[in-house]
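Troubleshooting entry. Yesterday's outputs looked truncated, so today I'm pasting the complete records for two proteins to confirm everything comes through intact. If either block looks cut off, that's the bug. Protein one:
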Amino acid sequence: TVQLVESGGGLVQPGGSLSLSCLASGFAFSTHAMYWVRQAPGKEFEWVSSITNTGRTTWYTDSVKGRFTMSRDNAKNTLALQLSSLKAEDTAMYYCARDCPLSGGRLTSQCGYLGRGTQVTVSS
């Protein structure tokens, strides 16, 4: 059974930083591209970032470029998202995900697998 377990969210002031982690199990982690997506209250899911199975290439939605950094450790089956220069509009539940259909930087339907999420709240 595919399991994705996120951790590391919390409350942070604008301009602050957070590190999110995801522990994957139940599948061959090193053979899959992985994703972070988020959902703000009352809004649809939004793609945040992607990483290839090797970790050599990453992509980011425009609103987080230069502020968020995604990485992975295939030896430990873990995914990470480093968030910096956080803004109020980054407030959302953040999910580690697999098999996300994207077109033009947007999710076209639900990701195949999602964790339970970790809450990030940016507020003074």
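Protein two, checking that the full record survives here as well:
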Amino acid sequence: DVQLVESGGGSVQTGGSLRLSCAASGVVVSRLCMAWFRQSPGKERESIARVDIDDRSTYSESVKGRFTSSKDNARNTLYLQMDSLKPEDTATYYCAARSASCSLTWAREDLYNWWGQGTQVTVS
């Protein structure tokens, strides 16, 4: 079975940093398009970052310049380094993966095969 397990969430003050991890099993991250989404209460889930099969990354305007995502193929894990956190970054963060290139459709939730359970990030 394929599993994506997020960790690293927590509470942090404005301007602080957190690093989220998404550990994969049953799949090889180097062969996947992997992405990060987040959802705040009362809002739709938002795509914020992706790392493609060729390791190229793309970010939404809301996190560009503050967040960095990368794969560690040796650990079969996707990371999201979040710096300069703001209260509006408060959300549940999810990683997702699909066995195809990200292409221009990386923000579409319905195209992902696997999802993690989510990890809460609170910025105050």
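Both blocks look complete. Sanity check on protein two: The two ends are 37 Å apart (CA to CA).
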